[in-house]
Amino acid sequence: MPYKTSELVDAVVIGTGAGGAPLLARLAKAGLSVVALEAGKNWNPMQDFPTDEKAQSKLFWNDERLSAGNDPLPFGSNNSGTGVGGSTLHYTAYTPRAQPDDLRIRTDFGVGEDWPIDFDQIAHYYDEVEQFLGVSGPANYPWGPARKRAYALGPLPINGAGQLMERGSKKIGIKTSPAANAALSAGYYQEGVGHRPGCANRGFCQAGCNIGAKASMDVTYIPLAVHYGAEIRPECFVTQLIKDASGKISEVVYMHNGQEERQRCRFVFLCAGTIETARLLLLNDLANSSGQVGRNVMAHPGLQIWGEFDEDIRPYKGIPGAIISEDMHRAADADFVGGYLLQSIGVMPVTYVSQMARGRGLWGQDLKQAASAYNHVAGINILGDCLPYAHNYMELSDEKDIRGLPKPRVYFSNGESEERMNAHANKVMREIWSAAGAKNVWAFPRNAHVIGTCRMGNDSNTAVVNADGQSFDIPNLYISDNSTFPSALSVNPALTIMALALRTADRFLDAYK
Amino acid sequence: MTIKYPVGTVRDLLTTDLVTEATRQALVKRLNTPPRQPTFFSTDEFTLLQAVCDRLVPQGETDQPIPVADGIDERLSGSETNGWRYDTMPTDGDAYKLGLKGIDESAQALFQQPFLSLTGGEQDQVLKAIQLMEAPGETWQTLPADRFFEELLAEAVENYYSHPIAQEEIGYVGMADTPTWKRVGLDQLEDREPRAVQINE
């Protein structure tokens, strides 16, 4: 339903990814007039998503960011997306739940931060999101609290990398399970969304799924939101949030087709992700009485271990993330804070060779020879907790982007805990690969999933939003995305972002109904 | 382990309905794009960049070389970025121009000749020194040599392995996905997946 910019709509939602889309659907279902502003395009997957990495680089947030610190974070193909659906357009769709103790890092370890909510307050949202997306997963997931319901669908087929990780792990006594993955192992129907087909095992999740089998927001919560009357405005880049005399935000200013537009609204939900959410607030000097906007940047230790095998693997086939282990969630011999999970990884060729160039510095005949083994490579990676540090933050640089706005500069350096975690994981993953028969094993150090910058908490001096995602400074401004996570969690963030988005929407609706 | 695959596999697949129309268009366009006249680099800079790329991703004697440097010139002409850069580096365009100047400075300092006049082995020595941050030359006092090398190398290999002919070399046929993939486990191949033709240990 198109609204007029002169009309006073109930809510403007900025960003249509994992933080914005579920919330948008919830508000629309409650009968609110809602408009979503999305910086990227509205893609047509069948036409616009070829099976080609270069052609799909348009799905990444390719506005330049400056990466500083000892372990500079890559963006673009890592950590960012653009288009209706946001970064979910190219997430691997691994959807493990956080465990209850992930939310109590400070209580358990004396460092980092606790969440202002406990597991019970998001568990039923996890359940709801999994059923709605049609998550495929094992009948009995071996880690974490018992589930209320089984996963919506049975597990996806296990590809070569997954079979090798199972084989190696079994030999050295590490428990594995088929992963929970938000790609459909069979056709799935949802009221308000329609029918989505089962996964074609195309292996292209980290680009964009061309058939809608992967639960990106554009084929799940966005159609649901539209079904309930929400309006989606693509190619609208928000530049300003205007406050009225009462200190509330009354208008959202955005650029569309080179024109400045304004949408009047009662409430604003900022869901633009860790970097752009904080950047917009810093640009407008808003919601920052705590001085915490842009602080506490975290990024999961994401070390990958690659190996070559005699077997034919064809790493382009099957869901990239097939097998998981959470045996290292609280490893007995851990000398670091929190824990990590292990995941098998398939990979597309350009991504693989590019990582090999960066990670191993290979070129010339050495590079070509290593690349010729592509069909025989398989990887394992970790995702582990990361502590918030004062030395990791983002700021506005002096350099301007194409819109004339300052580019963000992001500082990131792993601390001692993250270094120790990587060292532990390096040993474990090499043992698994050795037991599975790997040769030419090599490590690609990396950090995945940027998190933080607008922490939630109970204290307005140390947090930007409260436990409901509401700004301490501006009562009609809410934030719903990975920027509000007080700690990084030891799991892929997407499912938790969605669960938290639904909770934020419900808490808002309860308060203002 | 060197693994070889039959030539023509990807090109043969592109004419079938095993690929989607969107995929075919992207790959056929790349396959048929003629060599580029540079618009970002000067002719001299572009010739030097091509020579450097040939050492990073050697192609040997071939009647259809993959245009690695062309993609770099095209990207910089359109002021496109990959979404980030190291804070210690200047903008991509400036980094490339400076880095190419630095490569020639290092070649002069090490061999008293421009890079283009050196043998392949000598060119490799220059590039290796840059990668290891041991190359002489004024440019490397301001431009971080290792980061420049990493960025150049990554872009060169991305351009190379995005090309259908390079994908044939490594036996990649992931683009042929319209019938879906049924056989995804270890040693499970579909008929359309090429078999290695020769393995030399």
TrEMBL record, chain A:
Annotated PANTHER family: LONG-CHAIN-ALCOHOL OXIDASE
Boundaries of every Glucose-methanol-choline oxidoreductase N-terminal domain copy: 82-301
Entry keyword Flavoprotein: yes
Molecular function per GO: flavin adenine dinucleotide binding; oxidoreductase activity, acting on CH-OH group of donors
Keyword list, A-Z: FAD, Flavoprotein, Oxidoreductase
UniProt-recorded name of the protein: GMC family oxidoreductase
Record-stated family: Belongs to the GMC oxidoreductase family.
SUPFAM superfamilies attached to this UniProt entry: FAD-linked reductases, C-terminal domain, FAD/NAD(P)-binding domain
Domain Glucose-methanol-choline oxidoreductase C-terminal positions: 388-501
Protein source organism: Spirosoma agri
UniProtKB/TrEMBL annotation, chain B:
InterPro entries for the chain: Gluconate_2DH_su3
Protein's name in the database: Gluconate 2-dehydrogenase subunit 3 family protein
Organism per entry: Spirosoma agri
